[in-house]
């Protein structure tokens, strides 16, 4: 689509300049936009939007040398990608799924910041490391309950314990994992 617009531009010199700019910087624009959005579905549209913005500034871009042109193209790409993300996040916040089921409230993390996601990911990794340091029986117990979704009766049958005792064993395993996790976090805090 952008190629059709370039072809329709007035002036042979402007067409040649934009065509050259497109060919020289397409890969850089693609990489910049994708690294920010990670959205394969809208990538080509965002690349086109970037070059539309650049067409509007053709007179300014002609005055820039190679390095400044590259920087201008990158900043324009970043701006388009960031605006896309902001717009997408606003849309997600106001999505309405139906009269009976407003799933927007049930979806967690729509308003999470990048920092929150990184912290959450680190906590998950630390929890996983703590669980790996548990004794084998406690690891298996947590795995059966939370990963495989087994009920207390099934777990009791595997471990050869009373069905009513499974909750108590689970509580002990969770406490031990939390203690190991806290111990590790305190080590990093010092």
Task: Describe this structure as you would to a colleague.
- The chain is 75% helix and 0% strand.
- The protein has 190 residues and is mostly helical.
- It has 2 domains: 92 residues, Rna Polymerase Sigma Factor, Chain: A (Orthogonal Bundle), CATH 1.10.1740; 76 residues, Winged helix-like DNA-binding domain superfamily/Winged helix DNA-binding domain (Arc Repressor Mutant, subunit A).
- Helix 2 packs across helix 3.
- The radius of gyration is 27 Å and the shape is elongated.
What is the structural class?
mainly alpha
Q: Could you say which overall geometry the principal axes of the C-alpha atoms support?
A: elongated
Distance between the termini: 57 Å
CATH class of the largest domain: Mainly Alpha
CATH architecture annotation name of the largest domain: Orthogonal Bundle
Number of strands: 0
Low-confidence stretches: none
Oligomeric state as shown: single chain
Order of helices and strands: HHHHHHHHH
The main β sheet shows up as: none
Determine the fraction of residues in helical runs and give it as a percent range: over 70%
So how many helices?
Answer: 9
Features:
190 residues, mainly alpha, Rna Polymerase Sigma Factor, Chain: A
Architecture blueprint of SSEs:
Blueprint: H1 2-8, H2 12-37, H3 43-56, H4 58-62, H5 66-93, H6 114-132, H7 136-147, H8 152-159, H9 166-189
Helix pairs in contact: 1-2, 2-3, 2-5, 3-5, 6-9, 7-9
In short:
With 190 residues, the chain is mainly alpha-helical.
């Amino acid at each position: 689509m952008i190629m059709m617009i370039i072809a329709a531009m007035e002036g042979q010199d402007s067409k040649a300049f934009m065509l050259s700019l497109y060919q020289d910087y397409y890969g850089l624009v693609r990489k910049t936009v994708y690294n920010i959005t990670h959205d394969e579905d809208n990538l080509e549209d965002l690349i086109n939007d970037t070059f539309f913005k650049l067409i509007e500034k053709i007179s300014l871009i002609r005055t820039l040398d190679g390095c400044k042109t590259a920087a201008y193209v990158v900043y324009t790409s970043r701006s388009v990608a960031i605006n896309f993300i902001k717009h997408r996040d606003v849309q997600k916040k106001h999505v309405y799924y139906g009269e009976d089921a407003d799933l927007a409230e049930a979806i967690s993390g729509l308003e999470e910041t990048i920092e929150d996601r990184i912290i959450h990911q680190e906590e998950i990794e630390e929890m996983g490391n703590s669980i790996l340091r548990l004794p084998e029986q406690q690891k298996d117990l947590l795995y059966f309950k939370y990963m495989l979704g087994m009920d207390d009766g099934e777990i009791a049958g595997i471990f050869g314990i009373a069905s009513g005792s499974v909750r108590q064993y689970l509580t002990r395993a969770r406490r031990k994992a939390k203690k190991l996790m806290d111990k590790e976090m305190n080590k990093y805090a010092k």
